[in-house]
Amino acid sequence: MPAADRAAAATRLRQDVGGLAVTLAGRVVGEPVHTIAAERRTVDRFFEAH
Fold it and tell me: In degrees to the nearest 10, what's the CA dihedral of 18, 20, 23, 29?
């Protein structure tokens, strides 16, 4: 798989996993916990740390 395809897949995966995580967190907390900017920052910080 070319590097560009891997990068695109990784970006899409981050978006999908991030969206699912925020949705799940909202269900656990019992109220919406998403804003686009906060979601992106949280997901980016998670992937930078791991």
Answer: -80
Q: Does the pLDDT of residue 46 top 90, yes or no?
A: no
Give CA separation, 32 vs 9, 20, 48, in Å: 27, 13, 25
End-to-end C-alpha distance for the chain, whole angstroms: 23
Give the global pTM: 0.59
Phi, psi at 18, each rounded to 5°: -60, -45
